[in-house]
Design goal:
The chain is an alpha+beta fold. About 25% of the residues lie in helices and about 20% in strands. This is SRCR domain-containing protein.
């Protein structure tokens, strides 16, 4: 069993000290990451701070927020794009939003032209 602040490293068969961005309960508990940090599953000692805390929820090594992937969860998964808030959304969702904005513009523009023309005629 490992002391608090240490975790059991299965590959080495011994206890290893917890580093920055990690949380270790000791007593054989696995390494856990603090929110805003990420490490690859095959190298849990290499801990990276994420650009946005929301991208890296913490917990198990190798875990990213839904739709995110890559080192420090910095990329969107294939078929997804980063929205204004940084969350990765399906490309269809982003395209639908752009289409809706375009449709609103197309419908509102003639009304504005008509309203302006009526105002000038008076």
């Amino acid at each position: 069993a490992c002391a608090e602040g240490w975790y059991y490293e299965v590959g080495r068969g011994s206890c290893a000290a917890c580093g920055t961005g990690t949380a270790c309960a000791g007593f054989g508990a696995p390494l856990r990451l603090s929110p805003g940090h990420w490490s690859p599953a095959d190298d849990p000692q290499s801990v990276f701070a994420c650009a946005e805390e929301a991208w890296c929820p913490g917990g198990e090594v190798g875990t990213c927020a839904p739709g995110r992937t890559g080192t420090a969860c910095a990329e969107c998964e294939v078929g997804r794009v980063a929205g204004d808030d940084g969350a990765c959304v399906a490309c269809e969702d982003a395209a639908s939003a752009r289409a809706a904005i375009g449709l609103i513009f197309i419908l509102v523009l003639p009304l504005l032209v008509y309203w302006r023309a009526r105002k000038v005629d008076r």
